[in-house]
Amino acid sequence: MRRPQLRNPSWLPVDGFILALVGTVGLAALLPARGTAATVADNASTGAVALLFFLYGARLSTREALAGMRSWRLHLTVLACTFVIFPLLGLAARGLVPYVLTQPLYTGLLFLCLVPSTVQSSIAFTSIARGNVAAAICAGSFSSLVGIVLTPLLAALLLGGDGGGFSARSLVSIVFQLLVPFLAGQLLRRWIGGFLTRHKKILGFVDRGSILFVVYSAFSTGMVEGIWRQVSPWQLLSLLGVEAVLLALMLTITSYGSKKAGFPRGDRIAVTFAGSKKSLAAGLPMATVLFGGGAGLAVLPLMLFHQMQLMVCAVLAKRYAARAPEEAETAAATGTGQARRGERAEVVGASGR
């Protein structure tokens, strides 16, 4: 099996897609869509979201997702980290308002804590770290599948009135913009799955292009409404600091927690990367449905956290890989020692008899 690798040049510390996102935000700041153009952009953004989730559904193997449920302890651990521990930490951060975070930034931070885990980067980092890639594939896919339903429900429960007017109408929008296209993709996968697999590279550009368009539409609305004047450089630095602490806590919980739970090394690595990460690709479209015109400021914490997790996990994955031979030798030595002790016990037992 060929291992997926990160495509960024070694000299580039920033993910290329993040650079494209930053450029899109800059374009929205200089040339925001107004009037008729804004209406067209909003309708096109709605179509882009539906297309994204249709492609997610068409590419996700139902058989693979169901087979992955066999490792129920690992998947429950990742789901607990993603949809229980993350939200609890997000709720705990409410105490930082208004001293460290403004209410809009806190709303975005809490939304960040509700979105599902990543798939692609979790697989890539698990592969680099020489972990259980199959477990990472299943855990990420299963998290994304559950998140399509669970993230909007958690948002309705925890965000309440902060969710940009979250209401029954929002739930209907979620069903028709996210769930229906996803299910349609699953139903049509039998006939179009092969085509999507053969054109994976081109469809990757479609994915990212759709996300960039969603970002442009959301940030254009924010620029026209003047919401960016609400954020100061100090507030952005404070947000980065809070997110750094959040990521450090989740990496610590997933790493040491999975070790205490008795998972083998490969599974621990999969839990660490799948349980501590959040999906920008899934979160951005969901935010446009949940927050409407306020999505620009609401997704800022998610965009910053995404880049931070890529940079930190890239370093962590390399450290895991460097320690792999040493850990293997230690495990082999421990196994040999246990075998020798077992042999001596048998000899002593035989002589006693």
Summarize the model shown.
The chain has helices spanning 16-30, 35-59, 62-68, 72-92, 103-112, 120-128, 133-158, 168-198, 200-225, 233-260, 265-275, 280-291, 295-298, 300-352.
Overall form: globular
User: What's the tally of helices?
Assistant: 14
Helix content bin: over 70%
Q: What is the distance, rounded to the nearest whole angstrom, between the alpha carbons of the first and last residues? A: 52 Å
Low-pLDDT parts are 1-6, 331-340
**Count of extended strands:** 0
Rounded to the nearest angstrom, the radius of gyration is: 22 Å
Strand content: under 5%
Structural class: mainly alpha
Q: Look at the structure and give the mean pLDDT.
A: 79
Q: SSE order, as H and E?
A: HHHHHHHHHHHHHH
| Sheet of most strands | none
Layout of SSEs?
Layout: H1 16-30, H2 35-59, H3 62-68, H4 72-92, H5 103-112, H6 120-128, H7 133-158, H8 168-198, H9 200-225, H10 233-260, H11 265-275, H12 280-291, H13 295-298, H14 300-352
Helix pairs in contact: 1-9, 2-8, 2-9, 2-12, 3-7, 4-7, 4-10, 4-11, 5-14, 6-7, 6-11, 6-14, 7-11, 8-12, 9-12, 10-11, 10-14
Tell me what the structure shows.
With 353 residues, the chain is mainly alpha-helical. The protein is globular. The termini are far apart. The N terminus is likely disordered.
